[in-house]
Design a protein that fits this description.
Its main location: membrane. It is built from 18 helices and no strands. With 429 residues, it is mainly alpha-helical. The chain starts with 5 loop residues before the first helix and ends with a helix.
């Protein structure tokens, strides 16, 4: 297998670039910073948590609703790069503003955070869709897996620097308050995100596109509704999205609930941070391994392997008792979370028509975002009924079984959407 081209490397480095945002802003530092700001302003802990949830839900819902139409417009010649640049710039500017806004201004911080969520998620729609432009179908598994691996590695560097600053400030070893150290972490995130996106902006261009029409916005709505109307006719695409909805819900729930689950087991916050860091490190090579094995055994086989490992994870979680048990669980998750996400992205990219990739990745984004609803609900309801968090995590096995069964039914090839697009959609504009 030949080395990565300049375009492939540049695309991969965006995973390296935006990973700092994923771990520092959405997971590790900013949530705690916001809670401290809101509580200092007199908000009750439950109120600030509710506002945090509302902000995340609203920003995510807004992007999800707009994703298909933005993607459809982005399929026109020259638009994909413009949309990517706009959302990337929105995300990085408001991430930097988090470092400037006074920490007493909890509402302004929350508004800025919502803008970063929209920028981050919006840019990812077009970033994922650029996969069809930078590489061939035969290399998509490898390139997508390489991206996830680089993301895991890239996330650890600013994470370690930022956490070190915060810990050193807590111990009064450096002349910074904890608040100032957190703001420095936000600035580091924006700088990291911006610096390593430069190759993407310089070297990646839209190769596949739809030609311009007189009224691109109204024409995009027509194209989108035609796609929705006829999508069931393309069995492979429809079944894959359905399978993806279930199994990625399970994957995302395991990730998002892991900290809460660990806390319920009595694991200290320090140990949880160490485990989180170790998971990122271990996940990187395993994402690459999944990509290489997919070239040998095919993508569907490796996706089913990943689903099988998650079934083992859910089963093992039922018997979890100690910190050592949690370490084993975390390493099992690390072995498959990147691989299953990377191969899903590549599998979908091969199914969609290249000139309409943005439109279809808009739908892919919707399935991913709305998949984050069922899993947490299933865990919460089961845990409440059984009074056992372990049982809640075990209940996720249902999602993986359903997703795996549907994936088995996905045909290896898809009906040629290009023919439908030209005759049924463009001819009606």
């Amino acid at each position: 297998m030949k080395k990565l081209s300049k375009q492939e490397n540049s695309w991969v480095f965006y995973d390296w670039a935006n990973s700092a945002y994923s771990i520092l802003i959405t997971t590790a530092v900013f949530p705690l910073y916001f809670k401290a700001s809101a509580n200092a302003a007199g908000l009750a802990a439950t109120t600030s948590t509710a506002y945090w949830g509302y902000a995340n839900s609203f920003a995510t819902l807004l992007v999800s609703i707009c994703a298909p139409i933005l993607g459809t417009i982005g399929d026109y010649k020259g638009f994909k790069k413009r949309f990517f640049t706009f959302f990337f710039a929105l995300g990085i500017v408001f991430t930097f503003l988090l470092a400037i806004v006074p920490n007493q201004q909890w509402l302004l911080l929350l508004i800025c955070y919502m803008a970063t969520v929209i920028g981050f998620a919006g840019a990812n729609i077009f970033y994922d869709a650029f996969l069809v432009d930078v590489t061939s179908e035969e290399r998509m598994n490898r390139i997508s897996s390489h991206g996830f691996a680089m993301g895991y590695i890239g996330s650890t560097i600013p994470f370690v620097i930022s956490i070190a600053l915060i810990i050193l400030s807590q111990q009064h070893i450096i002349p910074l308050s904890v608040s100032a150290a957190s703001q420095a972490a936000f600035a580091i995130t924006a700088l990291w995100w911006g610096l390593f996106t430069i190759p993407m902006l310089k070297n990646v261009e839209q190769k596949y596109y739809v030609e311009h029409v007189p009224n691109p916005v109204s024409s995009s709505f027509k194209r989108m509704f035609q796609t929705i109307k006829h999508i069931k006719a393309y069995r492979a695409l429809f079944l894959f999205l359905l399978a993806y909805f279930f199994y990625i819900d399970g994957v995302d729930t395991v990730i998002s609930m892991s900290t809460v689950y660990g806390t319920d087991l009595g694991i200290s916050s320090t140990n949880l941070l160490i485990i989180l860091f170790a998971t990122q490190v271990v996940a990187a090579p395993f994402a690459m391994i999944y990509g290489k094995l997919a070239e040998k055994f095919n993508s569907k086989t490796m996706l089913l392997v990943g689903i099988g490992i998650y079934i083992v994870i859910c089963s093992y979680a039922y018997f979890l008792k100690t910190t050592f048990d949690f370490w084993i669980l975390a390493m099992l998750v690390a072995s498959s979370q990147g691989g299953i996400q990377a191969l899903s992205r590549a599998y979908f990219a091969r199914l969609v028509p290249k000139e309409n990739s943005n439109e279809f990745f808009g739908f892919y984004n919707i399935f991913y975002k709305f998949a984050a609803i069922l899993g947490p609900l299933l865990v919460g309801v089961t845990a409440q009924i059984t009074h056992n968090t372990n049982s809640g995590v075990f209940s996720l096995i249902i999602l993986f079984i359903i997703g795996g069964v549907i994936l088995l039914r996905v045909p290896e090839t898809n009906t040629p959407l290009q023919t439908f697009k030209k005759e049924d959609v463009q001819g009606k504009m």
